[in-house]
From TrEMBL:
The lineage of its organism: Bacteria, Pseudomonadati, Bacteroidota, Bacteroidia, Bacteroidales. It comes from the Bacteria. This is PD-(D/E)XK nuclease superfamily protein. Residues 8-43 form the AAA-ATPase-like domain. Pfam families: AAA-ATPase_like, PDDEXK_9. InterPro entries: AAA-ATPase-like_dom, PDDEXK_9.
Length: 342
């Protein structure tokens, strides 16, 4: 990376060429898909640009507004057979694909749907006339190695200051969004929060104590983030084996066999959580349980931080639009008994 962005590296040379071209053949250019890390490291080679990443006038540039999604559905409902009303489809899609905000000044105005995921859903609905069994398209998943890099960086913080752990346990994180920062400063808390935001893992949700409040935008991102969170506790794979995962999840959903399912989660918690993590108390157990239940394809776990209702710690909302023959749903109340040395 350093070789490409410094001295005579290809990327630096490319931006130098674009810069020099503005005196002759290039009147104006619009660049997308460049991370704030790269742009900061290239500043001296490309210091004539304006960064619009957090500008409110571009908030609706990426993605679909709900009105645009409704217009799309209205059009296809006249050319294809729809087994749901448009309102019903929006209700299904919204928690999975909506809620992106790309500028602090645009908060509480228009939220954006992930356009790739909307098109994936609509394509499958047109082809098969029903809600896709898998609400997440494989191609939309952020490159795993990039996320592993983020997890490794997050583990460089002390466990008590872990950004991802705080995000999961309290439902939000507050910080200052940075327009750019060098790669060597990625471990700075505000820079790490900003990187999660630019990777699409966080969205603007207002302000908190004078800082920008950021939350997980939707269920697509939440499912990914919870899965990656498990890797912060141990580099080993904490997922169920494919067979065991399928069997335990199915038994929970269709036969009401909750004891063995939650015993497995408790066993993972006991085996993989460090002693320091155990001292975090109920918030840690809450986050770990959310991460584990998010891997269950039959439910959408909703925490009290998500609903702000405060009635239960976690509600396992059954995905009845996908699995209409399910007969069990669950509410989870977590109690934490402090560990004492014998």
């Amino acid at each position: 990376y350093t070789d490409e962005t410094h001295k005579t590296g290809y990327l630096r040379a490319f931006f130098n060429t674009v810069k020099s071209g503005t005196d002759s053949s290039i009147e104006r250019c619009f660049i997308t898909g460049v991370s704030p890390v790269t742009m900061d490291d290239l500043t001296s080679g490309f210091n004539i640009g304006t960064n619009y990443s957090l500008s409110s006038e571009f908030n609706e540039m990426m993605g679909f507004t709900e009105d645009e999604v409704r217009q799309m559905l209205a059009y296809y409902s006249t050319t294809c057979r729809f087994n749901h009303s448009i309102d019903e489809i929006i209700e299904i899609m919204k928690p999975w694909y909506d809620n992106y905000c790309f500028a602090p000044e645009s908060y509480d105005t228009t939220t954006m749907y992930n356009s790739n995921m909307v098109l994936y859903f609509v394509k499958n609905y047109i082809l098969y006339g029903k809600v896709p069994r898998d609400m997440i398209e494989d191609n939309i998943r952020i490159d795993y190695e990039k996320l592993r890099m983020l997890i490794r960086k997050d583990k460089e913080f002390s466990h008590d200051a872990s950004i991802i752990q705080t995000l999961v346990s309290q439902g939000y994180i507050a910080g200052e969004l940075k327009r750019g920062f060098p790669a060597v400063s990625i471990v700075d808390p505000d820079n790490f929060i900003s990187l999660l935001y630019y990777f699409g893992m966080l969205t603007v949700s207002g302000t908190h104590e004078g800082k920008t409040k950021l939350t997980i935008p939707n269920q697509v991102v939440r499912e990914q983030l919870y899965t990656y969170l498990l890797n912060t506790y141990n580099e080993a794979d904490l997922n169920f084996s494919n067979y065991e995962r399928s069997e335990l999840s199915s038994a929970l959903a269709y036969r009401g066999e909750w004891q063995v399912y939650f015993a497995y989660i408790a066993d993972c918690l006991k085996r993989y959580a460090s002693q320091r993590d155990k001292q975090k108390g109920e918030s840690f157990v809450h986050g770990f349980t959310l991460a584990m239940t998010a891997q269950n394809r039959f439910y959408r776990p909703i925490s009290e931080q998500d609903t702000q209702a405060g009635y239960v710690d976690i509600f396992l909302c059954p995905l009845l639009d996908i699995f209409p023959d399910m007969v069990h749903s669950y509410i989870i109340e977590l109690k934490y008994a402090k560990y004492k040395d014998p």
